[in-house]
Design a protein that fits this description.
Two copies of one chain form a homodimer.
Chain A (H helix, E strand, L loop, with lengths): L1 H13 L1 E8 L5 E8 L4 E7 L2 E8 L2 E3 L26 E2 L4 E14 L9 E14 L4 E10 L2 E8 L7 E7 L2 E4 L4 E4 L12 E4 L3 H8 L13 E3 L2 E4 L5 E7 L7 E6 L4 E6 L9 E3 L2 E2 L2 E7 L2 H6 L2 H4 L15 E6 L1 H4 L34 H14 L3 E4 L29 H10 L3 E7 L4 H17 L4 E5 L14 H16 L3 E5 L14 E4 L17 H4 L36 H10 L4 E3 L4 H6 L1 H9 L4 E10 L3 E8 L5 E7 L4 E6 L9 E8 L12 E8 L4 E6 L4 E8 L2
Parallel strand pairs in A: 23-24, 23-29, 24-25, 25-26, 26-27, 27-28
Antiparallel strand pairs in A: 1-2, 2-3, 3-4, 4-12, 5-6, 5-11, 7-8, 8-9, 9-10, 10-21, 10-22, 11-20, 12-19, 13-14, 13-16, 15-18, 16-17, 17-22, 18-19, 30-31, 31-32, 32-37, 33-36, 34-35, 34-37
């Protein structure tokens, strides 16, 4: 039997029962869908006539009905037609039932974005498959764009498939060679790893070092990575693997097998090890393969957004791109604290009486301090002020998997909610709410309506939510279907209250902000805070646009002007691995409709000329032009303000420094612009001289070419104001 | 080491480092608390100088910090001082730190109950223990009443014990002999088993047969039973083991070891196998041992209520004992359906369009039918009408562990919520809401505020909630701390809306209705519905008062007048194992402030003379007198109406029938009463002639003695109206 299975397998590679091809609108991509001799659906993707993804298997393995609890880590890729249980088999024995091709071409306007109009143009192949042994149907839908492929599984309403549980999705990506990859370890509970650049064959060997400590983490597999995964072939082809529209489904990791150069999907389980509770009709997220001849093509791709549904919010007038400051870096650097007192060994909300507690004197979210931030925001034209640590419970919020950890409506004694509301309103400044949930999702949902109403009542149009620590209910994970469903519940409920959401430690985005543009930000990667926890890698911000940002904007919180954290708190020896000029650049290179100026007002007061760029830079764009884009090396982007004729350029580089020949040919020909150039100083260097910068002004046109020199760990930022 | 451990164990039985005794107020009970040679706290309970519970160990075993997931079924009782991990040890190595005794005597008035005043009288021993090896304290609090003992663990706020996770509570009940027990199998997900009467030594052997199928069940252990557990010694002592005030804690089972005649606590785990997430200061529920010389003493005990906190609801004016009918038995017998249509293979709320669906014609919760019930309720003086199956989703609500299964606010097209509300109000009838959750607890909590507000808006002052099926989140259980916390959340939130709760399939009650008297009912045992599913045992209602009802009232839904279910639906061959007269008796013997007349109006119309008793019987009492009480044989109770001088007597008997010498000496001497006696007919028999009854009237006084004859599976009911 075993030998026979193996024979079938061999035949499977060559004998094809059905095949169908599809071309991208520009003709450069070829998709071939086929059903192999075992009845397994497969696909193959070519670009300019050459393989990008070789013939790769599709399908899912279901949980056996009434099976015992699954072994979560039993994720062998070697399930084949001879070993899989019949009822659990959604991989083998399929036949073609129907197929349709179609073309779609539409231009839509995002509520906010990197450009004001986005073209959604693809050719589609829908294949309806029939599996006689289970009398089941499954649909595969492929959308081939000029920048790559998206495909998903669809499970139609049918007699023999209504409710089912996914044991594992078995989507393969068979690659052509030992590409270079920029990756972080697969993990069910954190995305906050530094990127490793390595050959695919080196992932396994480098995994141990790549898994650095985190407040909640569940690393998975020996060679399993997260998406968006950035790849580059030796021939200079850029490939990005991710997913789009991950809704009511578990987040995908990719597990690598060296012998076959194959990545296979590896979903995030719930606390029982199950990977998806499905009810037909339903669909999987889109699996995306963005492909380009340069890194710029990857950054310019809008495929992830295009594969999401159009906006479901009718009135979007209340969704406003926002630039903000916050009571935050003070605590991140340990200069002050989220908590209020040292009096209590633990907190029981509603029982612990803070009114009699002795303040420890380092609580930053006090009315007086917050008013200073409001003054600073008003003075410098910021839209809003975030305040963390305003509500009771921070004395023991972390590490206990505590159920009732916060109530989201009860301030500390020294935080005058109503007074601050009135003061901010009088200054024309909005407040940004902070809801740290401590990952206690049931507790958050129990308080959500009251918490959102509290925001509406007190002038908070946006919330930064946080999911630090292990998920409660105990045993569940940050990116399971159950928890993903929680994040989405919050987004949709927030929309009912006209609240914008910026969720930290929540699942990495997959373009859902197209459908729910009140999701104005996510963290979901290693952000600026790590610059105070030992530092990010110098090249970190040259990789994020190719990885984390493929799914949507990140609240990276740039703008650190004092890199030496010991200046904040003497025992903090961390140093932000960046020059000051590069911090300015990030407002352009790290696209987000929500941008923070993360440093404390005192530090900005020391560098008001440089701070001017942060004040000037928009947070919404008409157009974006990708000028340089090499992961791990350099990202240089020019963007045109959505509401004016002005352009902004940002460039961030790695530890080697970089020279940029910057042609301004994106400017409107015949127009004159005043350029304000924020560049690294002559001897600037992230390690030895990070605060050296120059500001120069000059008149330029579309014919101007600037020679820019970025220091190691540096970058530059340019404002280009069109003259009348 | 092993031998040394064994030696210590032997010594432990005899060498005691500290001992303290306590007497009950009446002096008949002696409690001895001691710390044995291993430093394990122990207790011993004597009644009238004889052991009830022999020296029994106390303490808990904690989850090791950062331990791997526990094996749920590894519940060996043989953890001893030599094998337990130090940090996990809350059983051994304790010393006395402090002790206090005190006396309490108070009479309080329940909002509703078996009597209008309850005396709470006990002597208390508080023992503060110190465990040097972990530098921890634990308190044991014993309350010795005239009817038995309650004790609990208390975990004070302290440096070395703040957050901890319980692996198992190790409370022992070492019994003196091979008593007779009335028990149901231990199970994490159902309480709906028939009782088995057996010797303790027979539990293990009879377990297999006792575990009958249920919609969700997780039987545990080989000789593990649920509480309240009723025991009787050969010397005629009655002992009841249960718990009181199970709040934010897992429900306890009792696991039996024959060799030592010992029951040990066995808590319900969450989906990860953990049995309690604790934060000091906190307490366990009370473990209760009610003891009496007769079964009547057990039924008369108010210990369970007394061990709960006083009422926390300030204004209780809206809490009203309620007699109701409902659109229910129709569906239970399968004559009609909860669902509306056969059109859909599955339902997605908000997507499935019922407005175009073809009704299958058997949907009972339609406006016309409901109005008939309202008419019937108004005509016969019932307070309220329950309607099940009114809301969308019943086509596939069960068996799929479906998350978004009901929204609790969207009626079927044929159910006119507002019209019914107005009609009922015009007739002076209240509506009772039905919230079947399908055990999807997150989904219920998400909709709870809107669902309760919907009730307030539409004239529903009470809700019957249901938890049929496996708990969602997947893997959790019906009686875990997590899920118990959910039920309590619903009760407390309902109180905010002035809503009374009657939760079915929820955790068995533990007297919480004292603190939250809006918890007016629970099912939490095998109810009348099983009479349509094959039948309850004939003696079932003679056991429930000693078991399920110890914790609080049950919505048993008596009043079935047509025992032959095939008269309802021809294919239903189930027969209610009862006579008609016994059905009347249950309104007295099965105490509840919420009583249903469960049969359909057409069946009551056939027996209006007997129905008169159901119309007359109160649902709230001044006083209760227990006349006969033998589990498995007979329960006869007299109760005095809370609002008049009238008395009511009920008696339910087993399959052997029973003769009762009924002395009416509980009546006020010197007063005359008209007795209306509803008795089994001469040849009545639950199996062959269940509907034979007699109604006789006679004048009686406190000196009257009635000779009552109950048929096999029969009983009687008497109304005693005081004459002016």
């Amino acid at each position: 039997m075993k030998r026979f299975g193996f024979l079938l397998f061999l035949l499977g590679l060559h004998e094809i029962s059905f095949a169908q091809t599809l071309k991208s609108p520009n003709g450069r991509f070829d998709l071939q869908f086929a059903i192999n001799a075992e009845g397994r659906p497969t696909y193959q993707l070519k670009f300019d006539g050459k393989d990008v993804v070789k013939t790769s298997g599709l399908g899912l393995e279901l949980k056996k009905e009434k099976a015992d609890k699954q072994e979560t880590f039993d994720n062998s890729q070697h399930t084949d037609a001879s070993t899989i249980d019949v009822k659990a088999d959604m991989m083998y024995g399929f036949q073609l039932k129907d197929q349709q091709t179609s073309t779609f071409d539409e231009t839509w306007k995002p509520v906010w974005g990197e450009e004001s109009e986005i073209r959604n143009h693809y050719n589609e192949l829908m294949v309806r498959l029939y599996q006689p042994k289970n009398d089941r149907e499954m649909v595969l839908r492929f959308r081939l764009f000029d920048d790559g492929l998206g495909f998903r599984y669809e499970f139609p309403d049918q007699k023999n498939l209504t409710y089912f549980t996914i044991k594992e999705e078995r989507t393969q990506f068979v690659l052509t060679d030992d590409h270079t990859a920029w990756w972080i370890p697969g993990d069910y509970d954190t995305q906050e790893y530094s990127f490793t650049e390595s050959r695919l064959s080196e992932i396994r060997g480098k995994m141990q070092d790549a898994i650095t400590p985190n407040s909640s983490q569940t690393p998975v597999g020996k060679a399993c990575v997260q998406t968006a995964l950035m790849l580059k072939t030796d021939a200079g082809l850029y490939i990005n693997l991710h997913e789009a529209a991950c809704l009511n489904y578990a987040t995908m990791h990719l597990n690598y097998t060296e012998s076959t150069k194959t990545f296979e999907s590896w979903l995030t389980p719930d606390g029982q090890g199950d990977k998806g509770w499905m009810q037909t009709p339903c669909v999987s997220p889109w699996r995306t393969i963005i492909v380009g001849r340069s890194g710029k093509d990857i950054l310019a791709s809008r495929m992830t957004l295009n594969l999401n549904e159009p906006c479901k919010i009718t009135d979007t007038s209340w969704i406003k791109p926002t630039k903000y400051i916050g009571v935050w870096w003070d605590m991140i650097t340990n200069r002050s604290h989220w908590s209020y007192t040292d009096d209590f060994s633990s907190i029981k909300l509603g029982e612990t009486d803070y009114s009699k507690a002795k303040p420890h004197g380092r609580h930053a979210a006090n009315t007086e301090n917050v008013k200073k931030y409001i003054d600073f925001a008003a003075k410098h034209g910021f839209d809003a002020v975030l305040v963390e640590g305003w509500n009771q419970g921070w004395e023991d919020w972390f590490g206990h998997e505590k159920d009732f950890v916060f109530d989201f409506v009860t301030p500390y004694p020294d935080f005058d909610v109503e007074g601050i509301h009135k003061y901010a309103a009088s200054k024309g400044v909005k407040m940004i709410m902070h809801h740290e949930t401590s990952a206690s999702t049931r507790n958050y949902e129990r308080h959500l309506d009251k918490a959102y109403q509290f925001m509406v009542d007190h002038g908070y149009p946006a919330v930064k939510s946080g999911y630090v620590g292990n998920i409660v209910p105990h045993g569940d994970h940050h990116y399971s279907q159950w928890t993903n469903n929680h994040y989405q519940y919050c987004i949709e409920k927030a929309a009912d209250y006209h609240i914008m959401v910026n969720a930290h430690e929540a699942v990495r985005p997959t373009g859902i902000c197209r459908t729910y543009p009140n999701l104005i930000g996510n963290e979901s990667a290693r952000g600026t805070e790590y610059e105070a926890f030992g530092g990010n890698t110098v090249e970190h911000t040259t990789i994020l646009p190719f990885t984390r940002l493929i799914g949507g904007p990140m609240d990276y919180t740039p703008g650190i002007f004092e890199m030496d954290c010991s200046k904040m708190q003497k025992d903090n020896h961390s140093k932000a691995r960046t020059t000051l000029a590069r911090q300015l650049a990030l407002y352009v290179t790290m696209y987000s409709p929500l941008q923070m100026a993360a440093d404390i007002p005192e530090n900005y007061d020391r560098f008001l000329d440089a701070f001017q760029f942060i004040k000037d830079v928009p947070v919404d764009w008409q157009k974006s032009v990708y000028l340089e884009a090499e992961p791990g090396q350099v990202v240089t982007i020019a963007r045109k303000d959505k509401n004016s004729e002005n352009w902004y350029v940002g460039s961030t580089v790695n530890g080697a420094g970089h020279n940029t020949r910057l042609s301004l040919d994106f400017l409107t020909p015949g127009k004159k612009y005043e350029a304000v150039i924020y560049a690294d100083g002559k001897n600037a260097d992230w390690e030895r001289n990070p605060q050296s910068y120059t500001i120069t002004k000059k008149s330029v046109t579309s014919k101007t070419v600037l020679k820019m020199k970025s220091a190691p760990g540096g970058g530059f930022a340019i404002q280009l104001k069109q003259k009348n």
